[in-house]
């Protein structure tokens, strides 16, 4: 017995580190919360877009990891002086670029709890609460959006929390592919055709490539300013008919509610009618704008979703939930499961084999998964449907205000109608004396964007719509208020004025 005790003591002395001692965790956790709270308190004082040069971090950090441990205080000091200068501050109230990626106290705390539990919920047995809470919150959210019951677990469908829209599109495309090939034969993969608009997010083309689609069979159908860059049902049907006549097999349509470039909304009802005639799988990508559809006044943009096969939105964009949290609903979960399931012996268990539980490993690309339902559950419970609607309406109201500011300045124009909380605008040709060529006007607007962003006070991004260079002003940061919008417009006006004068003097 003594030899066993000696062995135990010797082993203990060789492994003195306890990386998860509760009281030390408590102390360091408080330090981290204080650090983040201080960061949010002063985030608007930082240049929104990082001002560093490529390779900056390699020049100031050691070439090798430390041999001896360093304190959290020392590490956080380096975060403050070395990491923060290299961050583009997405949570700044002056961030108006790309799309919102807003967070909240509830979202962060839910993320902390998920990380702290650190469960690996690939199947029900691995952590029943992780699976069942996800079943519940996706049904809750689906009901808030007034999705048809066929998309809910309570109606035979179901929801899953993916990482991003890219994953949601890939999973549904693979399910559609395999369903079709089981009917037409595996040798026909080279004949399958995918349809979307030229405004559809680039993740659609990436997914098609990963899924093995022939690149020649990817149809990005042209849109136009006359239809506000919506996908035209007639053009879709013409493309489908042409492919059918040439011996190809129409497979999949991705329609968008809130395109990345301009938040255009495709006419779901008409598009799904066309798609169903030719037995296409229809996926609706509402990554950004879908969150707004919890408000009754925006729900109209989902009319027609009842005829789709799958629907997704990113709660980590405009729904106060931290990245990553893409909500995907499907009418036919078995289509996903048939394509994505794996059943090795070491994962077999009685619960799964009864078919009474959901194993989310069979609904996604990866095997392992975290506990993402916690953070969405925290957000839904902490704010409730009423406050979440008002939060979204607040951003829409600020965008309407900004749109009005643009309209009052005769040097600018709104390029496409505003639908949600993003305004697409530019310096218009008539404001630039002697610069009536569209390419020259585009160059002036490109210079305006770069000048504003280099100034550092705000950050905006751009797109090109029908050959027109457009500045996108996307409102959605949690901390943004009307004063930040007003100040941002002043920055734009000041920089535009200087550029217009320069253009006049150089003519």
Automatic annotation (TrEMBL):
<dbReference type="GO" id="GO:0019752">
    <property type="term" value="P:carboxylic acid metabolic process"/>
</dbReference>
<keyword id="KW-0456">Lyase</keyword>
<comment type="similarity">
    <text>Belongs to the group II decarboxylase family.</text>
</comment>
<dbReference type="InterPro" id="IPR015422">
    <property type="entry name" value="PyrdxlP-dep_Trfase_small"/>
</dbReference>
<dbReference type="InterPro" id="IPR021115">
    <property type="entry name" value="Pyridoxal-P_BS"/>
</dbReference>
<keyword id="KW-0210">Decarboxylase</keyword>
<dbReference type="GO" id="GO:0036469">
    <property type="term" value="F:L-tryptophan decarboxylase activity"/>
</dbReference>
<dbReference type="GO" id="GO:0006520">
    <property type="term" value="P:amino acid metabolic process"/>
</dbReference>
<dbReference type="InterPro" id="IPR015421">
    <property type="entry name" value="PyrdxlP-dep_Trfase_major"/>
</dbReference>
<dbReference type="InterPro" id="IPR010977">
    <property type="entry name" value="Aromatic_deC"/>
</dbReference>
<dbReference type="Pfam" id="PF00282">
    <property type="entry name" value="Pyridoxal_deC"/>
</dbReference>
<feature type="modified residue" description="N6-(pyridoxal phosphate)lysine">
    <location>
        <position position="317"/>
    </location>
</feature>
<dbReference type="GO" id="GO:0005737">
    <property type="term" value="C:cytoplasm"/>
</dbReference>
<dbReference type="InterPro" id="IPR015424">
    <property type="entry name" value="PyrdxlP-dep_Trfase"/>
</dbReference>
<dbReference type="InterPro" id="IPR002129">
    <property type="entry name" value="PyrdxlP-dep_de-COase"/>
</dbReference>
<protein>
    <submittedName>
        <fullName>Tyrosine decarboxylase</fullName>
    </submittedName>
</protein>
<dbReference type="GO" id="GO:0030170">
    <property type="term" value="F:pyridoxal phosphate binding"/>
</dbReference>
<keyword id="KW-0663">Pyridoxal phosphate</keyword>
